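(Structure overview)
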Amino acid sequence: MAPFSLIYCAIASLKKRGCKPKTPSLPTIGVGNLIVGGSGKTPLTLELAKHLPKVAVVLKGYKRKRKGSFIVGKEGRIFCDVKECGDEAFLLAKEVWLVIVANDRMEGIELAKKEGAEVVILDDAFHSCIKKFEIIIDLKPKNPLCLPAGAYRLPRRFLKKADLILKEGKDFKREVTIKNPTPKMVLVTAIANPKRLEPYLPKNISKYYFPDHHFFTFKELEQIWEKERPTSFLVTSKDKVKLEKFGFELSLLELQLNLDSRVIEEIKHYLQGWKDAKKDSAG
């Protein structure tokens, strides 16, 4: 597949270099990475949102059943079910001031402005052609190739396009605790790269991995329950929003992201620069 990876890299690189970024009407922060799969974008987005006033998160809402641009939740009120808006959007809406799903991110930003947002975070938006403060979570897989032979969506040289590059262990650390632990837990999860959970799991636990963003059925879960006879399913927060309606006992792998203070300082510096530029243009 290597020849196809070269073609993919070339096309993706030309597209990224050739884009003329649109200017949003609100200060905008992009959270992304260069590779496919899980890297911690959603936990990082949640943590950043805690430090920002009237923040809106705009994302595409992968695998959602309802089309168009709409508000998922505002100030703790959620206006759709998890299948309509997607698991990540639903999870974010439980904690973030405003969450919007939109295929057209500029449209989503305008909707956020109408709702009174003061700053926008774009989830998984490094590849979108919008002027923003770019935060990249840098993971370096052993395979250096682009899709489809490797994991990269863009070559590593595009890291220089980022305003802030974050590395786990240096710029942020994960703390994982198990809430409501029970004697016999079985892991059931539908996240990208689920093996990253293994350092935090009890020994000899049975594991059931489903495709990323998978919507579970009662039958699937019942079959696992009957086979394993557990006392609870061990799940991530992203899985929990899809599983809690089925009535099974759940234990939660709760993730807390501890950010270096430098990250927040850099973002506040960007926001102040935005305000100053707006004042200058108005004057």
Observations:
- The radius of gyration is 20 Å.
- The mean pLDDT is 94.
- The CA atoms of residues 191 and 212 lie 4 Å apart.
